[in-house]
C-alpha cells in the first residue's frame, strides 16, 4: 500500500537518503526545507516539495495547508531538519557582553533542532494515520555525551522527553514515536567547512566499526522503524554510530 511520507530536511544528507528509500518502495514523499532550489534539485522520483521555515509558525501552517490539500493523511513523519549552526550566518555583534553570543547560539540551536520538530509535529499530529502512523526524530550522539557545541547537544537531548510524552499520547491511536541518534555521518552538509582531516580521523577512531557513518545507514534504520515489523517499538532512542557512544 502506498504511504504518504513527510520528511523535513529532505533535500540533502540523511533526509534525502531516507526520501530515496521510501520513494523506492513506491511511497509518496513530500520534501520540506527552507531552500526551494535544493528541494527541487534533490531528484527524488515523484516527490512533492514545499519550501518553508519550520522554526516559524507561519511557515509550519503553510506546510499544514499543503499537506491537507495534497496528501490528507500522513503515514510517516520524519524530522531530519536541524544543524549546529555551522552553516548559519554569523550573528551581528550587539554590544560587548559575551552573553549576547551565548543567547544567540542557544536560541539558534533550539530553533533549528527542537522547535522545527515540535511545531511540525503539533501541526500534523491529527493527520497521522491511525493505526499505523509513525513519527521519527533525528537525534544525535551529542545528546548522550555532549559535543563541541553544548547548545546543539542540549537541543537534541530535548527531543527525548518530547518523544516519550508523544509516544504515550499517540500510542492509543496505534501511532509509534521513536528517535534515531546518529554519530558522525559523512556526505552531509552538517559541518559546512568546519570538518578537517584530524577531526574526522578522531571521530572515526571512536567507532568499533572503523568507519564513518553514511546517510544510508541512518535512512535504513528510519525505513525499518516505519515498517510493520517495527509496529511494537515505540518511545525508543536507537543509536546508529558504530559503537562510538561507548568510546574506546
What does this structure look like?
The chain is an alpha/beta fold. It has helices at residues 13-24, 36-41, 57-70, 99-124, 142-145, 150-157, 159-170, 197-205, 215-225; strands spanning 4-8, 28-33, 48-51, 76-79, 134-138, 176-182, 236-240. The protein has one domain (4-240): Rossmann fold, CATH 3.40.50. It has nine helices and seven strands, in the order βαβαβαβαβαααβααβ. α2 (36-41) links the parallel β2 (28-33) and β3. α1 packs across α9. It is globular and about 50 Å long. The model has no long low-confidence stretch (mean pLDDT 93).
Helix and strand arrangement:
Blueprint: E1 4-8, H1 13-24, E2 28-33, H2 36-41, E3 48-51, H3 57-70, E4 76-79, H4 99-124, E5 134-138, H5 142-145, H6 150-157, H7 159-170, E6 176-182, H8 197-205, H9 215-225, E7 236-240
Parallel strand pairs: 1-2, 1-4, 2-3, 4-5, 5-6, 6-7
